Amino acid sequence: MSVATPDHQTRAPGGPPAGQARAAFDRLAGIPMLPVAVLVFAAFALTVPGFGTVVNLDTMARVLAPLLVAAIGATLIMLAGGIDLSVGATMSLASVLGAMAMKESGSVALGCAAGAAVGAAVGVVNAVAIVRLRLTPFVHTLAVMLTARALAFLASHGASVGGLPPAATAFGRLRLAGVPVLLLIAAALFLVALLVLHRSVFGRWIYLVGANERAALFNAVPVDRVKAALYVLGGTAAGIAAMLAVLRLGSGSPVLGDNILLQVIAAVVVGGTSVFGGEGGLVRTLTGVALIVMLDKGLDIIGLAFYDQAIIIGLVILAGSALGTALQRRKTLRG
């Protein structure tokens, strides 16, 4: 006697159950850059001597930590339909003032708190200007970027701030169970942000505001408070990221964040978060950050010139974005 097979278990010829195949496809469409990141890692590990060594992986982990923390804040802001161009400059200013506080007080904790507070203060300025004064986020954060960068140079007289307590660099090199502590801190912040985004009312509000601000207002979502909170959180994340970089490098610098802005925006967008808001997530950003760090380090080991690296990274970004768009379009059509 034959038994009917449920639709979701129907087998394609020579393949897995259709339901399992569709579920796998949906997961891939949700994290489009994951296969690209895996392929890039495998290619570098097989062809570039030294890329897959423990020393290089440890270095990449320490580089990834501050970039991931900064990208967390940028992702949340972008999910709500906003943008923050002051991320890199905020990191520069926070690194300088945080390093100065650490140097003068001799306290690593006080210096890190000062750096995070500087980032939060910039976030408050952004929130007031964008939410209260209704300034355009792109224009305002561009102005803040220029101002914060200038303040970082004025405060440091254009030089790096070194002479930090020995405990700072010791903490930056510390490992726990073989994993750099800086990466563990970034991972903890990532998990907290992930829980807030997907397991809280505030997280649902973020997606609603980004998808349709007017509809969010009709659904009693406090749009202004959500936006203000996100810009403050984004600034705070930039301040924390700056201090993670200071602990890794052993100094603060007015140029620390010069390349961070492009890396953060690239990681968020390449990961699959829409610049128009309402679509994307932190897991996507994680894959984008990992890809950017691997490309940067791998091409550097190869010894390619800066412009050659830029061309290759640009092509990978285009390919990854095209893949994500194609997967999302196909998922929409199948839905």
Description:
The structure is a single chain. It is built from 14 helices and 2 strands, in the order αααααααββααααααα. The N terminus is likely disordered. A two-stranded antiparallel ribbon has the order 1-2. It has a domain of 209 residues.
Spatial order of the strands forming the largest sheet: 1-2
| C-alpha geometry | globular
Q: What's the total count of β strands?
A: 2
Instruction: Describe the sheet with the most strands.
Output: 2 strands, antiparallel
What Rg, in angstroms, do the CA atoms define? 22 Å
Mean pLDDT over all positions:
88
How much of the polypeptide forms β-strand, as a percent range?
under 5%
Low-pLDDT runs:
1-15
Query: What is the share of helical residues?
Result: over 70%
Tally the helices. 14
Order of SSEs, N→C?
A: HHHHHHHEEHHHHHHH
Distance between the termini: 34 Å
Structural class: mainly alpha
Organism: Labrys wisconsinensis
Pfam family, one: BPD_transp_2
Protein name: Ribose transport system permease protein
Subcellular location: Cell membrane
